[in-house]
Amino acid sequence: MAATFNATSNPWLDHGDNAWQLSAATFVGMQSVPGLMVFYAGIVKKKWAINSAFMCFYAFAMVMLCWVCFAYQMSFGEQWAPFLGKPGAGSSLSIMGSLSQAYIPTSGVLAAFPMSTLVYFQSVFAAISVILIAGAFLGRMNFLAWMVFVPLWLTFSYTTVCFSVWGGGWLFKAGVLDFAGGYVIHLSAGTAAYVGAWCIGPRLKQDREDFEPNNVPLMLVGAGLLWLGWNGFNGGSPFSAGADSGVAVLNTNICTATSLLTWMCLDIAFFKKPSVIGATQGMITGLVAITPGAGLMAGWGAIATGVLSGTIPWISLNIVGKTKLFSHIDDTLAVFHTHAVAGLLGGICTGLFATIEGCEAFALTTPGGAIAGNWNQVWIQIYSGLFVIAVNLVVTPIILFSIGLVIPLRMSEEDLLIGDAACHGEDAYAFYHDGAKEIDINRTASSASLALKGNTPVEVLG
Question: Start and end of every Ammonium transporter AmtB-like domain (predicted)?
Answer without folding.
Answer: 20-429
